[in-house]
Amino acid sequence: METLRSVFVIIRLLLGSILVVSGFEKLISPYQNFLYVVQSYDMLPASLEGWVAKVFPWLEFFIGVFVVLGLWLKKILWAQAGIFLVFILVVGQALVRRLPLSECGCFGDLISFPPQTVIVMDIGFFVLTCLCLMRVKETNRFSLDRLFGEG
Fold it and tell me: Rounded distance, CA 5 to CA 126, Å?
């Protein structure tokens, strides 16, 4: 049982770290780099693309930080599930529409994955996040919520 509890904490830390790294990479790069990625998915009106390119990396980064810290964990895990679901929908529509994307742009210039690989990863991350939500008591071990008596 102790090992199972630790597994959920490790999953929480890994998934949160993925968002921290991905968001941070986009934040330290020129915003136009991510704007190009947003535009390449051809989903949004031009008036929203710049806004998404500026706001989304911050959202991704802070959700990841809160997940790693275990702060407001149940709510932030829902946000994390939502962000992975957005990734699945965006990459999925690009694959269905056969957009000419050689890589996803998920990690900026840090790591490059083809969209087919990324959608499988994101589905896995979504499922793992849902498992953490189902076992939130085990997931919140070593969290700020538990430290502050919230969990």
Answer: 19
